[in-house]
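User: Batch of two.

Assistant: Item 1 of 2:
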Amino acid sequence: MPTILDSVFEHFFRNNTAIMLLTDEENDRILDANDTALRFYGYSLEQMKSMSLDNITSRQQAESDDDNRGQVVTHNCADGVILSNIKKYFS
């Protein structure tokens, strides 16, 4: 049974204006994506769930960001647009 905390997290995740992906830390498979991420990358939720971070991240070497809390990477969108300097944070 979902708890209040589950409901709060679900609301935070679904309605956030930040791009958010939930991934499996062992294999980088995308488990879920919020609507902002779907609009940004141009994929459907079903497509995103069939992918891993490797499918949207360029093979370029990721660089640590200034505060060492994440990495700066290049991402690829469904329409072929390549986006540079995307900050990837871990939690």
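Item 2 of 2:
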Amino acid sequence: MGVMQTQNPFLDELAKLTTAAMGLAQSAGDEAKTALRAHADRIAAEFDLVRREDFEALKAQVATLSAELAALKSPAAPVEPAAKAAPKSRKTGQ
């Protein structure tokens, strides 16, 4: 036994209209999201704000430089006794 299908042009058109409306609504939503993001970017630029990625990169650079600075400020390792015993004056001719 086959399934009996009825072809109702009104329901067919209603389904097409609903599908088109859903596509239009999705497009409008995407366009609104894009416009809102562009507006937010303009505001961020106006207030001289930075993006999170840029902030995190700069934060990592500052941490690295702080560690290097701390290493440079720490007391140097003691000089080896052999290096202290180097001759202070040079003799000529010998």
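The CA atoms of residues 11 and 17 lie 10 Å apart.
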